[in-house]
Structure formats: structure tokens, C-alpha cells
Amino acid sequence: MVVGKRSAVVLGVVLLANAGWADAQAPKLTLEEAIARANRVQPSVISATGTVRNAQARQRSATGAFLPNLTMNASRGTSFSEGQQLDPSTGQFVTSGSSTGSASGSVNSSVDLFAGFRRSNEKRAADANRNAAEASLDNAEFQQQLTTTNQFFDVLGAEQLTTVREASVRRAEEQLKVAVAKLQAGRGIRPDSLRSVVTLGNAQLQLVNARAALATAEANLGRLVGSDGPVGAVDDSALYRLLGSVDHEALRGEALSNAPSVKAAEAQAAAARAAVQVSKAAYFPTLSLSGSASLNGSSRNDYTFLQSRNLSLSMNWPIFNRFQREQGIVNSQTALENATAQAAEARRQVLASLTAAI
Predict the structure, then answer these.
(1) What are the CB-based long-range contacts (under 8 Å, 24+) for 87-94?
(2) Do 138 and 32 touch, CB atoms closer than 8 A?
(3) Share of residues in the chain with pLDDT > 90 (%)
(4) For the chain, what is the total number of helices (H) and then of strands (E)?
(5) Given CA atoms 188, 189, 191, 197 in this order, what sign does their dihedral have?
């Protein structure tokens, strides 16, 4: 009687869990679909993509510094003047007014002929920043791919464990039926029946825990791929394969050459070296060429437009600017030292991680 009541209670709990589980079945994705969706919605990848766009814009701006600028201006106006004059017929002063219309247009352009190698070094820095941004984007995508893949296999592992726990419950139920039948036939003893009840209860508890772990894994996978609900994983035999032997030295060289974190850090160090040269360009003079052409006319000459042209060559050479150039050089050199140290640390981190993985 006690065995029957306990079994009914445990069975009721499991039936409720099964009912809730049946309502929570999640849509499934393949590993490629999960990785693609994660790369589209994860903030780290989106931020790295925006950094690449900013670096491209900076690179375009650095290239445009070699080109002349061009501006156009146009204006149209009317002026009114008021004055007094003597009327010869009356001998009195009368007030009169006159208006004058004017129109003008001009085109202006200027270009730096020499800027102390500043523009070329700014171009080098912009190129290096773009390389660093693209390497950081690769690193963000690879990191997200690793996280999504691990979570994907967590879902598969939880599904397989749930299948094992369900089989354990079925086996424990069969054992309980056999124990109860033997007890009712007088061929068994009560401790065997109680032991079967405990075994069944433990199996059912493990099944509930496995399903809870599966629900958690699917919820985390759904979060990674941008879904508000849980997402399951599609099992594929192609996911299970054995790797051959690994050439450790070749792998170390490959890691140092192509690791995105190393490439990004080295590109940032190159950008810092170019920034040092940009700050030193302040010691050189700047040589600029500018020109303009304009048309001006007014109603006084029946809007006969008069042309004017101007061409000038100027040089600007700051001799002393209260040590501001020196401060800029020190700041850029400090940034270079930090970037160089970070690049070396990135290489050491890759080697350490690779050694631990092997």
C-alpha cells in the first residue's frame, strides 16, 4: 500500500513535468545557422563592425588630405541710402533715397604642398588602424563562433543526457513492476519493492534535472542567436570527427602569424609608430597654395560683372609654441611603448593559450 502511494506521487510529479516539457519544445537550428545568427545580433560583433566602418572613414579622410579643397560662394543683396539735398526751385532741403543692388560669386581652392610629412604619416596610421579594426572584427567573430559552438554542443549534450535519463526511468519502472508482481505473488520481499521505488524516484529526479539543464542550455543558445525563446540544436553526424596528429611547432607559427588578437595588437603598434612621426611633423613648416576667382556686379553699372583672380603661396612655420609640440611627442611615444608592450603580451597570451589547449 505504501509502495503504491509513493509510486503514485512520484508518477504524478513526472507527468506534470512531462506536460510542461511538451509545451516547451523549442525550434532547432544547425550549427552554421546558429553561428550566422549570433554574428548578426551579438553586441561585440556589431561594435567591431562599426569600428571597421569608422576606420575606413578615417582612412578615406587621410587620403583626402592630399587633395585640394574647393568652396563656392554666392550672394545677392540690395542696399538703401537716404540723404538730403537742396531743391533749387524752392530753396529748401528735401529728403531723398536711393537703392543699390549687388550680386557676387566666387570659387576658392587651396592645397598643402608640404606639411612636414604629416599627411603621409597620418595615412600610415589610418591604414594601420583599419588593419587593427579588421583584425579585431575577425577576433570578435571567432570568439563569438567559439561561444556559440560550445553552447550548441551543450544543448546536444543535454539532449542526449535527457534521452539516457528517460531510458533509466523506463527501466526503473519495469523493475518496479517486476518487484510488485513478485511481492503480490508471494515470491518477493518488501525491501526489494521499496528499493525499486527508491531507484525509480532517483531516476525520475535525474530526468527532471536533465530536462532543467536542457531548458537552460536552450535558453542560453536562444539568447546568443537573438531569440526571445529557447532554441534547440540539430544533431548531425558531421559534427563528430577525430582530428589527426598535430604539428606543435607549425601550429605555434600559424597562431603567431594569423591570430586576430596578435594581428590587431601589431597593427595598433604600427599606428602608434606613425602617430609619433605625425607629432614630429609639427617642427616642419607648412607650405600652402591657394587661389580664388570671383565675379562682382551692381546696379550702378548695370550689373556688369567684374572679374577678379587671386593666387597666393604661403608658408607657416611655428618657431616656438610653448612646448606643446614636445608634449605631443612625449604623449605619442608613451602610447607607442604601451602598444608595443600590448603586442608582445598578445603574442605571449596566444602561445600560453595554445600550450594549455594542446
Answers:
(1) none
(2) no
(3) 71
(4) 8, 6
(5) positive
Q: Which residues contact 231 (CB under 8 A, 6 or more apart)?
A: 26, 27, 28, 29, 34, 155, 218, 221, 222, 225
Q: Is 109 helix (H, G, I), strand (E, B) or coil?
A: strand
Q: pTM to 2 decimals?
A: 0.81
> How far apart are the C-alpha atoms of 261 and 275, rounded to whole Å?
21
Q: Of 43-52, 176-185, 228-237, 315-324, where does mean pLDDT reach its minimum?
A: 176-185
| Sequence-separated (6 or more) residues with CB below 8 Å from residue 147 | 38, 224
Question: Is residue 194 classed as helix, strand or coil in its secondary structure?
Answer: helix
The side-by-side arrangement of strands in the sheet containing 92-114 is 69-87, 92-114, 286-298, 306-316
- 193 burial type by CB count under 10 A (0-12 exposed, 13-18 middle, 19+ buried): buried
Helix, strand, coil percentages (3-state) for the chain, rounded to 5, are 65, 20, 15
Model confidence over 109-129: pLDDT tens digits?
999 999 999 999 999 999 999
**Beta-carbon contacts of residue 157 (< 8 Å; ≥ 6 apart):** 217
Please give the span between the terminal C-alpha atoms of the chain, in angstroms, as a whole number: 58
How many Å apart are CA 276 and CA 325, to the nearest integer?
11
